[in-house]
Each structure stands twice: as C-alpha cells, then as structure tokens.
Write a structure and sequence with these properties.
Number of domains: 1
CATH class: Alpha Beta
CATH topology: Rossmann fold
Strand content: 5-15%
Structural class: alpha/beta
Order of helices and strands: HHEHHEHEEHEEEHEEHEEHH
CATH architecture: 3-Layer(aba) Sandwich
Bound molecules: NADP nicotinamide-adenine-dinucleotide phosphate
Distance between the termini: 20 Å
CATH superfamily: NAD(P)-binding Rossmann-like Domain
Shape: globular
Number of strands: 11
Length: 318
C-alpha cells in the first residue's frame, strides 16, 4: 500500500527516473538485493518493504515478522550504502514507542521504556532498522558521500491497496469491509471490538506519500521524524464516520468483552509541521476514496480479500 502510494506520489509530483516497485525480488536475499541495486543504480531509496500485521499476526508469527524485517533492513540499508545511495527513507512504526509513552509521542521517547508485549518482536526489528540507519550516518555521514539515512514513523496508515482480510487487517479496512458486507447482506447490526472509546490517529496513504517525499527533499536531520496529521478520534466516532461513508443503515454495537488497548495513541508531529507539510485530505475524503477503491475491486462476499492487487487504478475526488 505505502510503496505504491509513494510511487504514485513521485509521478504525480513530476519526478522522473522513478523505479517501479518490484515484487519479484526477495529482499531477505542479499544476492537478489545486490543484483537489484546494480541493475537500477538508485540515488534515493524509499524503504517501504517488510512484513507487518495486526494483533493476531503478531501473536502467531513473531519470528517470521522479526526475521523478515531484520533481513530486509540489513540487506537494503547495507546494499544501499555500497551502491552509493546518499539518502534513504526507512519506514518504522509507532509501535516502536514504549507501551506507557507520554502522549503525544515525541521522537525523544524511543527506547525510554518497555514495549507493548503483543508486538515486541516486530517493534525490536523496526528499532534495529532505525538504529542501523543512524549507525551508517554516524560512521559514514561525514565522508564524501554524506550518508543520510532517515527513519520516519507514520501513524496508522490506510488507503487503496490496504489489506482487507479480516484476520490480518487494521481497524479501518476491517470496519469498511464489515459494514459493506452487512449492507449488501441486509444484516441489521455490525459489531465493533471494544468500547469504542480509545483514541487513535490515522493518515491517508496519499498524504503519507507526500510527507515522505517532503522529508526526502527537505529533512536534513538524522534523527527520526513522526508522520501524523496532528489530530485523533475515538474508535466509536471513526466507526460512525465509516458508517456514513458506506451508507450502512443498521446499528453499531460495541463488544466490551474485546480488549480496548491503550486509551490513546497519537504522534507529536511538530518536526514535520515545522517543515511546512500539511495533509491534503480530510479523514472523510480519505475514507470515501478508500471505500470507492474497495467497492471497485468487486470481490465476492465470504471470500477472503487477502492482499488485493494494489496497482488497480483508483480515482480520488477532492
Ligand atoms: N500500514 C500501516 O498502518 C503502517 C504504519 C506504520 C508503518 N508501516 C510500515 O510501512 C511499511 C509498508 O507498510 P504497508 O502497509 O504498505 O504494507 P504492505 O502493503 O504489506 O506492503 C509491504 C510490502 O513489502 C513487501 N515485502 C515484505 N517482505 C518482503 C520481502 N522479503 N521481499 C520483498 N518484498 C517484501 C510485501 O510484498 P508481498 O505483498 O508480496 O508480501 C509488500 O509489497 C511496512 O514496513 C510497515 O511496517 C505501516
């Protein structure tokens, strides 16, 4: 999802010599990564490859998530340096912040406390990638090449190309799918997990892509940078907004037997705001665009969507 959005954003912003995302290379295989860099000879790298997932994926496959992200990070970052890449943007995740982090979460809080146990393996791998970027900057940042390998930490991302599999998906694709299917099947009730009171921050993939491009162009610090929109909302309000977008006429119920997670999670994005970046899309517009894309892919109900083809074109009304 994010890689496709960055690719589309680069083309939309008039950049040339943009290399197509390549789905055939296994980034855990150093030989294949070296061959890719030798063939493409990139100057700038946006590093959005890596396995991720929701709570169940993190609990079922922690070793796979950790190993994939560690190997991808070590292979791509070290090969990028060998290939003379001077600027690289590594995408980490807000789960690298301590479990009881002060809100909104400032970049200085990384590694100041224990991680949330449910996604610790994945988070440790992402922290390793961040630290590897900084180690390259420290060791090679002052040589002729002036290596700048930057880590950005996005809020919860959603958009066209998202994963709508109910087992693996995040809250927005999951609620869109549940309400869409309930509307078509005429179900009069959709269940939301938890009380609906926890507050979360979301960023549209297209806005994240523009922020990544702005960071690549203008951010010269080697410290990580948060990428959020500066506002959050409760899961209950989010569900009601999605209900409006999907035009689902039934009732929303909240299952309080399901866990809520931490009461609030929001990034301090002041560094990004200082760069002059602002989101272009309201949450409502972004949800409408995502739903239009989802409805257009036309998969049958009861069939898992899994990782749908993100390259299916989508239109964004503004
Ligand atoms: N989505 C979010 O809310 C969010 C928030 C913060 C950070 N991030 C981070 O941003 C990055 C991109 O996330 P996304 O939501 O765009 O996920 P995504 O849609 O699953 O994209 C990740 C891509 O990485 C590829 N990949 C994984 N392991 C690979 C390997 N060993 N070799 C080659 N390609 C590999 C996947 O290929 P396949 O499809 O073939 O598996 C997929 O195309 C991830 O690192 C994620 O941790 C995401």
């Amino acid at each position: 999802m994010i890689g496709e959005a960055i690719h589309e954003g680069l083309l939309r912003n008039g950049f040339s010599n943009v290399i197509e995302p390549n789905h055939s290379v296994d980034l855990t295989n150093r030989k294949e990564v070296t061959e890719l860099f030798n063939a493409m000879n990139p100057k700038y790298v946006f590093m959005s490859g890596g396995e991720s997932g929701g709570i169940s994926a993190n609990q079922l496959f922690p070793a796979r998530l950790m190993l994939d992200n560690l190997l991808v990070a070590t292979n791509v970052i070290s090969t990028a340096y060998e290939a003379g890449v001077t600027k690289l943007l590594y995408l980490a995740s807000s789960c690298i912040y301590p479990k009881n982090c002060h809100q909104p979460m400032n970049e200085d809080a990384i590694l100041t406390g224990s991680l949330e146990p449910t996604n610790e393996a994945y988070a440790v791998a992402k922290i390793a990638g961040l630290k590897l970027c900084q180690a390259y900057n420290q060791q090679f940042g002052n040589d002729g090449a002036s290596t700048k390998y930057i880590t950005c930490i996005p809020a919860n991302v959603f958009g066209p190309g998202d994963d709508f599999d109910l087992e693996e998906s995040h809250v927005i694709p999951s609620l869109i799918r549940k309400m869409h299917e309930a509307k078509i099947l005429g179900s009069d009730e959709v269940e939301i997990w938890g009380s609906g009171t926890p507050r979360r921050e979301f960023i549209f993939s297209k806005d994240l892509a523009d922020a990544c491009i702005a960071i690549m162009e203008d951010y010269e610090d080697t410290q990580p940078i948060n990428v959020g929109v500066g506002s959050d909302l409760s899961i209950g309000d989010l569900a009601r907004l999605i209900q409006k977008v999907v035009e689902y006429p039934g009732k929303l119920t909240f299952n309080t037997n399901r866990p809520d997670g931490i009461p609030a999670k929001m990034l301090d994005s002041n560094k990004l705001i200082d760069l002059g970046w602002r989101p272009n899309y309201s949450l409502l517009q972004a949800l409408q665009a995502t739903y239009r894309w989802y409805a257009s892919i036309g998969q049958s109900i009861n069939k898992p969507y899994g990782k749908v083809n993100p390259s299916i074109p989508y239109e964004l009304g503004r």
